[in-house]
Design goal:
By secondary structure, the chain is an alpha/beta fold. The protein has 2 domains: 43 residues, no CATH class; 248 residues, Rossmann fold, CATH 3.40.50.300. 37% of the residues lie in helices and 24% in strands. It contains 11 helices and 12 strands. The strands form 4 sheets. It has a 4-stranded parallel beta sheet. A hairpin with a 7-residue loop joins strand 6 and strand 7. Helix 2 packs across helix 3 and helix 7 packs parallel to helix 10. The radius of gyration is 19 Å and the shape is globular. The structure holds guanosine-5'-triphosphate and magnesium ion. The site of magnesium ion has 5 residues, from helix 2. Magnesium ion binds next to helix 2.
Length: 299
């Protein structure tokens, strides 16, 4: 990760993108290739230590934006076993939007599918007891629909491939109620994801059939409305998404199942389009930190 002044003029200085590794002019706000904020690459270059990406993926509506926003909020408050320091103002957008929405008893908006509109997050996370053991949570808040398209047609969204291939660990989210009520659909998406990841992280030569050691934390979200997932996430995964479980066992040596939920109580409301909406009345986050804690022990 280097910032190289190729000519005396600062206008021509180049920086290497931390995500897609392409060089671009230091004057740009974002990498023209993958839209990662230039500040992200600058901070990492100055620190001199390559970042360990931890990214958040999952189908549309899985709860990625809510989970990420809540995770960042809890990390920055410093009240749990992990501490997190957001790098750059861009890193606060997802947290701010999620918390503001929840305070107004609503959920944040769906993430747009255009890659240049994704908000990026860079948060330096370390255990409270071992502050030097830093892992960077670096991820754009990806849109589930874009992930689905990328799984169907590789390189539709090159940024997704770049982010994933940089990842030292993954947080993979599924909607627990969706898995319980329509496990087949969720399982098919999940199996496509496993085979995409297995291809991406496949070793070379004679080692290529070995199980990959990339740690994957699988999180059943919205478990506040699905007690069976909260009770035993692993048994829940076996019962609802057997294909995915087999895929993970086959390809990834280190994976663990978790459940999370942020709602203590909610009411049903009607939005401006006449659609029924859940209104979170009381926020009571559960199972948000544990998956990252486990991941950090593995990377
Ligand atoms: N009960 C409950 N509902 C949740 C929770 N998290 C998310 N939801 C619901 O799930 C919806 C989708 O959550 P998002 O975080 O926007 O989902 P996403 O994965 O970011 O979706 P895309 O942006 O389309 O990829 C929200 O609008 C809420 O209705 C949770 O912890 N509990
Ligand atoms: Mg989203």
């Amino acid at each position: 990760m280097t910032i190289t002044a190729t000519r005396p003029s600062s206008q021509s200085a180049q920086i290497t993108c931390v995500c897609c590794e392409k060089p671009f002019g230091i004057q740009s706000q974002d990498c023209p290739g993958c839209h990662a904020p230039a500040d992200l690459s600058k901070v990492v270059a100055e620190r001199g230590v390559p970042p360990k990406f931890v990214s958040v993926i999952g189908p549309s509506g899985a709860g990625k934006t809510v989970y990420l926003g809540m995770l960042l909020d809890m990390l920055s408050k410093g009240t749990c076993s992990l501490r997190g320091l957001p790098n750059g103002p861009f890193s606060l957008d997802v947290q701010q939007e999620t918390i503001r929405a929840l305070e107004q008893q609503r959920f944040p908006e769906k993430t747009p599918t255009e890659a240049d509109e994704w908000r990026w997050v860079h948060c330096e996370v370390a255990p409270a007891k071992r502050p030097k053991r830093i892992v960077d949570v670096v991820t754009p808040d990806l849109a589930g629909e874009a992930i689905a398209l990328e799984l169907e047609h590789e390189s539709t969204y090159p940024v997704i491939r770049s982010v994933l291939s940089k990842s030292a660990g993954l947080l993979v989210l599924f909607d627990s109620a969706q898995a319980r009520d329509d496990g087949r659909t969720e399982d098919i998406f999940a199996m496509k994801l496993v085979s995409y990841l297995a291809n991406l992280f496949r070793g070379e030569g004679p080692l290529r059939w070995r199980k990959n050691r990339l740690p994957i934390a699988i999180i059943y979200t919205k478990a506040d409305a699905c007690p069976e997932a909260m009770e035993d996430p692993q048994a829940f995964a076996h019962a609802t998404m057997p294909g995915f479980v087999q895929g993970c066992d086959r390809h990834f040596a280190r994976h663990q199942y978790f459940a999370s939920g942020i709602v203590g109580s909610y009411a049903m409301g009607i939005d401006g389009y006449g659609r029924k909406q859940h209104m979170p009345l009381h926020i009571e986050p559960r199972g948000i930190i544990e998956p990252l804690e486990w991941l950090m022990e593995q990377v």
